[in-house]
Amino acid sequence: MQNSARTASYVFFSAVISLLIHLLVLGLSDRMTLKAFSYIPTEQKAAYKRLRLRTIDPRELVFRENKNRLDAKKTTDQLRSIIRRSQVKVRDIFQAERLIRKPKPRLQLAGLGSNVLVPKIKPPEPRELKAPRPEILEIDAAKLSPDRLALDRKPTPKLPRKNVARKHVPSLVAGSDFQDAVGRTFQASMRLSLPSLSPLQVGKLPPREPEGGGGEEGRNGKGTTAGRSLGPLAALPKLPITGPRGARSAGGERIEELDRLLDVTFTVYEQPDGSGFFRADITPNPRSDRLASIPKDVLFLIDCSTSISDPKLAQFKAAVIEALQYLNPRDGFNVVSFKDSPRALFDRFAPVKPEYIRQATGFVKSLVRGGMTDVFAGLRPFVGSDRPAKRPLNIFLLSDGKTTVKNSPKNAEFIRKIVQLNRANVSIYSFSAGRNANLFLLDLLAYNNRGKSLHEDRLRDFKKRLVHFIGTHSDLIIADLEYHVTGGLGEEIYPKQLPHLYRGETLSVYGRYPAGTGELALSLVGRDAQGRLEEFLFRSNVKKAPKASARLAVEWASQKLYHLISRNTLAPDPSVVAQVRKIADQYNLFVPYL
């Protein structure tokens, strides 16, 4: 009887394992196509495609976060500051141990009281202690005796030494031939006064004659004199800058210039036939402080339905509570939870003040999961022309994107209805975590509504990702961006719909140009906090631009792939699907949704 039970258990578990293996093979078969050539006649091999694995996911290239060059500069400055502070601490220790001698000042008699018989010798220039840079002592292990090798000492492999510039690895003292430290020399003089007379005041002393004799110019005080103010220094000549492009206007409205407020990194990848791809990374520089922050509204939309697990909801809540601390003081905000219908904390957007932040924190902490999910019903009241707020609105949707309510629009229909209602007036950013997320809905919902989709596979990284994104998207400076390109290249530039421009973010534009293109000109136009039109005009010579690798072509293709998938979602078209397949085959891209 016991053997029969064991046999039945063995058969059951074997069947389960076999089923799982078959499901895994079927899942992998969707991502790869295997063609066997071993027994195919030679004349028929050309009709078959070779094995090709889709190893590049365009989603990672389209929705990645651009690293701000200003953030990199800030990090470099912080590292330099740390190095300087560390140097000071080490130098203080060395001086306390009398390992470094601090240069001492010297006094030299001059003027009245000096020895007129001693020849005038120019005092030495002050200098710091210098010594040769320390050298690394090397011991060749091959030349050591066995008893020395047996000692408890960790050997280090011999590596080629490289000379590193001092600016990268600063030392306590400059590396050079040894020289002693010499301090600054100060000239001192004595002035006598008779007891019956009041002492001379410094302000009443006659001016000192210039060196080289007291000519007429010196006696009249027109030369260089000690103790006399030279007046304000003349302004240094400014660097030449491009002159104004002239009075530009659109519909009778004057257009301001952004050229000096933005930095551009422009790179190209040229193909053998002369055509190529380009990428323009546009980053606000420190001069962008001229642009005031545009007040906006921020809405946190949190999915609390049963499809959200307890650990995931805990991450959602912790991320929102911390992100509330990074809101711009000029903004308004609200927190809304939803299951099959939304529940808002405030009846309108509240100002970013401590008392409202405390209320929002308590509201988020009280959220519990349960009930059915209707993502469309949760989002619908906050998009469309009927919303009362006229300021830019950013919606941060925290959800798995899975609707469980019947008769609610799903996926393509959902996206089409939101796009028709919204018309890109509201920026929708979707955040999700884990493996059970409806990325088709979340990705294309954000892509078609001036936003971005950010997904974390590991749940523990979700909070960090959301808080960082909120922090870099708190200072909006140019809204409703549009671009124009010369030479009829607009058809091959992506993304078609640009997001707003934030002070802490880099905006990337990808494009393709035909052979024979000499110069590219890109114009960005948007509105600032005062509602004025602002334009940024950039020109670059393709031949002289910095060169990129072939990966730039793949990045461009990923952008085009998502544009085509978006077009097919809004208006299904077999010809667009064929273009998607062609782009994927040409650039070895995995098609995530079709």
Please explain how this structure is put together.
This protein is of the alpha/beta class and 594 residues long. The chain has a domain at 297-474: von Willebrand factor, type A domain (Rossmann fold). Helices cover 28% and strands 19% of the residues. It is built from 13 helices and 20 strands. It has helices at 2-29, 58-62, 69-96, 146-149, 216-219, 310-323, 354-365, 375-379, 411-422, 439-447, 462-472, 551-570, 574-587; strands spanning 32-33, 52-53, 106-109, 185-188, 249-250, 253-257, 262-270, 276-284, 297-303, 332-338, 342-344, 350-351, 393-398, 426-433, 453-456, 476-485, 501-502, 507-513, 519-527, 533-541. Helix 12 packs antiparallel against helix 13 (574-587). The model is unreliable at 30-52 and 191-244 (pLDDT under 50).
Could you give the topology of this structure?
Blueprint: H1 2-29, E1 32-33, E2 52-53, H2 58-62, H3 69-96, E3 106-109, H4 146-149, E4 185-188, H5 216-219, E5 249-250, E6 253-257, E7 262-270, E8 276-284, E9 297-303, H6 310-323, E10 332-338, E11 342-344, E12 350-351, H7 354-365, H8 375-379, E13 393-398, H9 411-422, E14 426-433, H10 439-447, E15 453-456, H11 462-472, E16 476-485, E17 501-502, E18 507-513, E19 519-527, E20 533-541, H12 551-570, H13 574-587
Parallel strand pairs: 3-4, 6-20, 9-10, 9-13, 13-14, 14-15
Antiparallel strand pairs: 1-2, 5-6, 7-8, 8-18, 10-11, 10-12, 16-17, 16-19, 19-20
Helix pairs in contact: 6-7, 6-11, 9-10, 12-13
